[in-house]
Amino acid sequence: MADLDRVVAGIACRDVLADLSDFLDGALTATRVAELQAHLDGCDTCARFGADVAATMQALRAHRVTREAAVPPVTAARLRDRLARAYLAIE
Amino acid sequence: MTESDAACLAAAARGDGAAFTQIVDAHERAVYRFVQSLGLRGADADDALQETFIAAWRAAGTFRGEGSARSWLLAIARNVVRHATRRHVGEPADFESLDDIALAAGWGRDPLEEVAERQRADLVQRALARLSPEDREILVLRELEDLSGEDTAAALGLSLAAMKSRLHRARLRLTAALRAALPEDDRNG
After folding, report:
1. Between chains, do B106 and A49 touch, taking CB under 8 Å as contact?
2. Every domain of chain A and the residues it spans
3. Which of B49, B107, B118 to mutate to test the interface with A (most CBs of A within 10 A)?
4. Do B17 and A51 make contact, defined as CB atoms within 8 angstroms?
């Protein structure tokens, strides 16, 4: 099995793993991105794993609601009724 | 955060019910969707929706504008749901090492390239449902509700660094759960 302590381009796979989310989110400095990219260019294991995590997140985001689901009318009415009492400090 | 949200909450803090109703109109669907994504259905979801906005009305004066009004409301909703389901509130201990999570997620093995996009999307939803509440809520907030990192941290009462750490682990656990859900032939390479 591949070793998380393997070093490619001066960076261990373990360290790439630790920064993977920030890398996918574009939250790293340009310098760090370049360092990680150099590792990924030479490490098939990390490149494939990173692509797999990215694909999982992409599949999850495919379910992102672009139009907000409506609250059932009865539910919305009950909420407003209760708030109306709260506004008057009845409850 | 819209300027109108902040203004409405400030007015609500002074007792302006009409202003608070604007907040309700703008955010009730997001709150309702969120409590459902945490597992509540039917009357329980309705109750959580009411309790969230009642609590928000009473606490309108505590909104400081440090995050969006929506993240503030979702943080309240999260606490309402936790109280309703009697879960322990607090940051869970992460005893599982990152190495173990990554290995379970398939680090070191061939990817799941051959899995059709639609199959993966459906399986991801099922895998999400099997995660712990803590993992599920952070993924819902960050990936599905599309809150910023700062707003996600605010909604969960975490520092930005702690949110990032939890999010990273949750993403890997989701990948691991997805792998576990695949047929044996599709997992290994």
Report:
1. yes
2. 7-65
3. B107
4. no
Question: What confidence tier does B64 reach under pLDDT thresholds 50, 70, 90?
Answer: confident
Give the pLDDT confidence of B74-98 residue by residue, as tens digits: 999 999 998 887 644 444 545 678 8
For residue B132, the SS3 value is coil
Ordered domains of chain B (ranges, CATH): 3-84 (1.10.1740.10), 98-187 (1.10.10.10)
Instruction: Give how far Cα B9 sits from Cα of A86, B1, B68, B133, B167, Å.
Output: 15, 12, 11, 29, 30
Q: Which residues of B90-109 are buried (b: 16+ CB within 10 A; e: fewer)?
A: eeeeeeeebeebbbbbbbbb
The amino acid that residue A26 corresponds to is: G
Mean of per-residue pLDDT scores for chain B = 85
Q: How far apart are CA A14 and CA A7, in angstroms?
A: 9
Total-model pTM: 0.74
- Whether the ipTM is more than 0.95: the answer is no
